[in-house]
Design a protein that fits this description.
Elements lengths: L2 H14 L1 H5 L5 H14 L3 E7 L3 E8 L5 E3 L5 H4 L6 E3 L13 E3 L2 E3 L1 E8 L5 E9 L7 H47 L3 E5 L5 E4 L1 H5 L5 H4 L13 H14 L1 E9 L5 E11 L7 E8 L1 H23 L3 E6 L4 E4 L1 H7 L3 H4 L5 H4 L15 H8 L3 E9 L5 E12 L11 E10 L1 H37 L6 H33 L7 E4 H15 L6 E6 L3 E4 L1 H18 L5 E8 L4 E7 L23 H5 L6 H11 L4 E6 L3 E9 L8
Parallel strand pairs: 20-22
Antiparallel strand pairs: 1-2, 1-8, 2-3, 4-7, 5-6, 7-8, 9-10, 9-13, 11-12, 12-13, 14-15, 14-18, 16-17, 17-18, 19-21, 22-23, 23-25, 24-25
Helix pairs in contact: 1-5, 3-5, 14-15, 15-19, 16-17, 17-19
């Protein structure tokens, strides 16, 4: 500590707490000064007294051995109040000491003279006093000498106090140093110092062990030596920052002896001490495991978000107040909102406010809300959600509470919210309806010819027609016709299944469109000898890349439909024209009753006809156009229909003129 500071502290202690000086050990030098005062003043007794709170402490003496005097036993209380030598020639004349004067150890003293002991701060704390048994006065020289000796006594007392203060300060410093060292060594992080060039001056043992090293292996070396090469530029930036700002904090990457990079979070401060070069005091904590955990958490979060965004089901989460906290892309798309419009809003009045029958749906009756109470998974299959545009759609959803995983085993389970995964079941319900219609149609299509077939065979078996051979022949024709109808239905179903499953391979070749039309018309006429409609065809000289057998099947189906729905003796036209060097357009045109506009898109679906009564009146299961559509799509072409009700229908389809890479 600075000597001037110690001196000032000693002076303040003597002035403010004289008891410390009173209780200090005896000093032979003070005894010598007291003896010198007695010798100069020619007195048998001299005392160095310090005024205490209740008594006088004799710090040095010549002529007596006592160390404590009563406060009023001497005139010291008066002498300490002045600035000069205080003298009483005969104390017996003073009221406080009459008639015997000052009594000390049984001896009476008449003469008393004392110089105050004044600190450097100007405070009087005691006296240097001389006593004589006879009345007398000090000479001027003796008075001056007594004053000089009082200053020497005071200097000695202050010197002793400074020494005691320095010892106390040294002890305090040692204790502080021991505590600091213990604190540093017991720290669970790294505590270190380095100079402004980044050279390590000191560090604790635990800090060195964090990187597989000892203090001796690290002290005296630059920080850069322990930093990965690609991060050493950051050390230079750090040194510039701490010199400019006086402090710095951040992450420090240091290499362990096993090659692993350890991440340390630090907070360092520049220390400037007068008379010493500035240095940096740093504190760091190893957060490598935390960084790894955060990195894994970020990875898992990204994976979860990717999964959440890639699933086709809508997923959203709500908190205990019912507000949306998460909504994936599928949920946003199906409900017609943006994420910004959904997040933070109460979900029930947004999408779940009304039942399918139009009645209000109270939130407390919602299975989503009830799942919070049961802490179980709730599955619902027959509800609706409402879109932003006011339309609704059927949904199937699963609601499961989000449980707080931080709750200990002794605490009750606590829900944080609910996660809901829902599916739009519109298409599935449509498929179920199609399946039901398929089963119903197939059952009907099978039952009708089977009934006729069974009736005809029953009549023949029973012998009811033995006498009527022409009737028997007619029954056989009915049986054959219905058998053919069954065969066509089964073949159509099998063809459709093979094409849909990809089991029907195409045998592609370069064929002439005109020749294909001619073959289709001729073969169809051979299959229908009683045909009354006229089939006309015209084709440009173009080639197509197709499977001739499959395209003939398409043309047969389209001709069959055209003949079926055309007027008797009507005309059916087949046309082919080139669209460009890559596509050819085919058209099959009839003059039948036409198809309503709202049903044009559906005639290529399974078991679909413009009028359900057509299947009964004209025959057919409604699979022909579906098969045509699948075959044309398999070739990479397109098929569609146009119609004018009452005037006829045209079926258009395109085929490629050269191989395409996307053909199967």
């Amino acid at each position: 500590m600075n000597a001037l500071l110690v001196k000032d502290e000693a002076q303040r202690n003597l002035a403010a707490e004289p008891d410390d000086a009173l209780n200090s050990a005896a000093d032979p030098i003070l005894d010598d000064l007291a003896g010198l005062a007695a010798q100069i003043c020619e007195t048998p007794l001299a005392l160095v007294c310090l005024v205490g709170k209740e008594d006088l402490q004799v710090k040095a003496a010549c002529g007596i051995v006592t160390t404590t005097l009563a406060a009023g036993s001497t005139p010291c209380a008066m002498a300490v109040l002045g600035d000069a030598v205080y003298e009483i020639s005969d104390t017996r004349l003073e009221p406080e000491f009459e008639p015997e004067g000052v009594l000390l150890e049984g001896q009476s003293y008449c003469f008393y003279a004392a110089a105050p002991l004044t600190t450097s701060a100007g405070e009087n704390i005691g006296t240097l006093a001389v006593f004589d048994a006879h009345p007398r006065h000090l000479t001027e020289a003796q008075s001056s000498a007594l004053t000089t000796l009082s200053r020497q006594v005071m200097a000695r007392l202050e010197g002793n106090e400074r020494i005691r203060q320095m010892k106390r300060t040294e002890l305090t410093l040692r204790e502080s140093e021991a505590q600091y060292r213990q604190l540093v060594e017991s720290s669970l992080g790294i505590v270190f110092t380095h100079d402004l060039e980044g050279q390590l001056l000191s560090l604790n043992a635990h800090g060195a062990s964090m990187f597989g090293r000892s203090v001796e292996e690290m002290a005296g070396l630059p920080l850069e030596k322990f930093v990965p090469t690609k991060r050493r530029a950051a050390i230079r930036d750090y040194l510039e920052t701490i010199v400019a700002d006086g402090e710095a904090q951040g992450l420090l990457h240091l290499v362990h002896t096993d090659g692993e990079i350890r991440v340390t979070a630090y907070r360092n401060r520049l220390i400037a001490v007068p008379g010493r070069a500035p240095y940096v005091l740093g504190f760091g904590v190893d957060i490598t495991e935390q960084v790894r955990a955060e990195r894994k958490l970020r990875t898992l979060t990204r994976q979860s978000n990717s999964i959440l965004e890639s699933v086709g089901d809508g997923i959203f989460c709500i908190d205990l107040a019912g507000r949306v906290t998460v909504a994936n892309a599928a949920a946003v798309q199906m409900l017609g909102y943006s994420q910004e419009e959904m997040l933070g809003r109460v979900m029930h009045p947004l999408i779940h406010h009304t039942r399918a029958d139009g009645t209000a749906y109270p939130e407390e009756e919602s299975p989503i809300r009830k799942s919070l109470l049961s802490f179980g998974t709730t599955r619902v299959r027959d509800e609706i959600f409402w879109r932003k545009d006011g339309t609704c759609f059927p949904v199937e959803y699963v609601a499961r509470p989000l449980v707080d995983s931080t709750v200990s085993e002794s605490e009750e389970t606590r829900a944080l919210g609910v996660v809901v995964a829902f599916t739009d079941t519109t298409e599935r319900r449509a498929l179920e309806r199609m399946k039901d219609e398929f089963i119903s149609t197939v059952s009907h299509e099978l039952r009708t010819p089977l009934t006729s077939l069974r009736g005809a065979l029953g009549l023949l078996q029973g012998g009811a027609l033995e006498a009527r051979p022409e009737k028997s022949q007619h029954m056989l024709e009915i049986a054959i016709h219905n058998t053919d109808r069954l065969v066509r239905l089964v073949n159509d179903i099998l063809d459709l299944e093979r094409i849909s499953s990809g089991k029907s391979e195409l045998h592609l070749a370069n064929i002439r469109a005109g020749e294909l039309l001619r073959n289709a018309v001729n073969s169809y006429r051979m299959l229908t000898p009683g045909l009354s409609s006229r089939i006309l065809f015209a084709a440009v000289d173009v080639s197509i890349w197709a499977d001739p057998e499959r395209i003939l099947q398409v043309l047969h189906n389209l001709l069959s439909n055209a003949v079926k729905f055309s007027t008797p003796d009507g005309e059916i036209h087949l046309k082919v024209q080139s669209l460009d060097d890559q596509e050819v357009l085919f058209q099959v045109i009839d003059n039948g009753c036409g198809i309503p506009a709202d049903k044009l898109e559906r005639i290529f679906d399974r078991f679909q006809q413009a009028d359900a009564s057509d299947s009964r009146a004209l025959g057919g299961a409604g699979l022909g156009l579906t098969i045509c559509s699948r075959i044309i799509n398999q070739h990479g072409g397109h098929i569609w229909a146009t119609s004018v009700p009452g005037k006829g229908t045209t079926v258009h389809f395109t085929l490629p003129t050269r191989p395409r890479t996307n053909l199967r």
